[in-house]
Amino acid sequence: MADTYTHKDLAGLCGVSETTIKSYRRKFPGFIPVLTRGKPIRFKPEAGEVCLKIRDCFARGLSVNETHKVLKEHFKEEPSARQRRAPAQPTVADAQPPAAPAGVSQEYLEKFFTTAGQMMQGMAGLATAQAKAEQRLRKIESALEKLLEVETENKALFARLLDHPAASAGKGGAPEPESRPEPEPVAGHKPEPQASPEPRPEPRVRARRIVNVRGPEGEVASYSLERDTPPSTERPSDDFLNTPIVIRNDQGEFLGVPGRLPLAGFVSILIDGADDIAARWARQGEAWVFIMAAPDGDSHALHFISTTTPRGNLVVQLEQLDINGSPTSPQFLQEFFRQVKDKA
């Protein structure tokens, strides 16, 4: 058995893989003679020369049919294999991959095409990830544009607020009423002394800082004057204040606070620990509005309405939240309610 070959021996002789030797056997079964069919299969000594010739033909770029003709010129083909091969027509599967340049093995070509396929898959994944990143970037750009629009509107609002007190100051005080000539005294008639009219109390004003503005002299303060109105005594009934507080989520479900927290307890949590917060109730249609004003001018207005759940329970629903006069989104309202609920 010293001069026989196995698949592994033929692969080492030709410098290719065992898979390539097996493909040689499938394509040219009559030229690679088998000595024994046990395991491992052993081939006759001339099988080594046949495999070397097949390798050289493929390296020169010859097709399977052309290589078969070369093998017929140098080696003997078994008749049984020739009969099996005769009716077979060349198929796409028999097509040989692009010929390797001189000195490049078939195994190297197979590894090259496998690596190239993996690289193409990686590039496809990279393109998909890049497309997703571009979508996220467009969303971020859209959000930034909205923020810039809001900032522009705020600047315009501040400018109008600053121009209003300046214009009022430029007009000066109200013009004094024209002095009417006193009637001349009639002879023999003593004029009665006229009671001096009581001075009308001037409305009190209080200064509230709106925004810092640097003036031409370097000052940085700006104030808006507003009339000091007496605090409102309007408030909801005790029944309304003792009704459990709820909110509705995006699915229309009623969500309350554990322990059926009443509206009065909810309001108490809002103002608990807050310094210098001016709070009052106001009536707007069917809703009661709880307004909280901070010293810095920020205001929160919470709208509450009386409603009934599908189970027939009477509740008070937090319907809307306005910050500085602008309604917030339903998502912001739900997050605000959750934060207050966590403090309960």
Structural commentary:
- There is one protein chain.
- By secondary structure, the protein is of the alpha+beta class.
- It has 3 domains: 7-103, Multidrug-efflux Transporter Regulator, Chain: A, Domain 2; 105-169 and 204-229, no CATH class; 238-342.
- The protein is 41% helix and 17% strand.
- It is built from 9 helices and 11 strands.
- The strands form 3 sheets. Strands 5, 6, 7, 8, 9, 10 and 11 form a 7-stranded mixed β-sheet that branches. Strands 1-2 form a two-stranded antiparallel sheet.
- The chain is elongated, with a radius of gyration of 48 Å.
- Mean pLDDT is 79; it is low at 86-97, 173-177, 203-209 and 225-229.
Question: Which keywords apply here?
Answer:
single chain; 344 residues; alpha+beta; Multidrug-efflux Transporter Regulator, Chain: A, Domain 2; 3 domains; seven-stranded mixed β-sheet; two-stranded antiparallel sheet; elongated
Estimate the mean pLDDT confidence.
Answer: 79
Number of structurally distinct domains: 3
β-strand percent reads 15-25%
Flag low-confidence runs: 86-97, 173-177, 203-209, 225-229
> Portion of residues in helices?
40-55%
> In DSSP terms, counting alpha (H) and pi (I) runs of 4 or more, how many helices?
9
First-last Cα distance: 91 Å
Count the E strands: 11
Structural class: alpha+beta
Shape: elongated
Radius of gyration: 48 Å
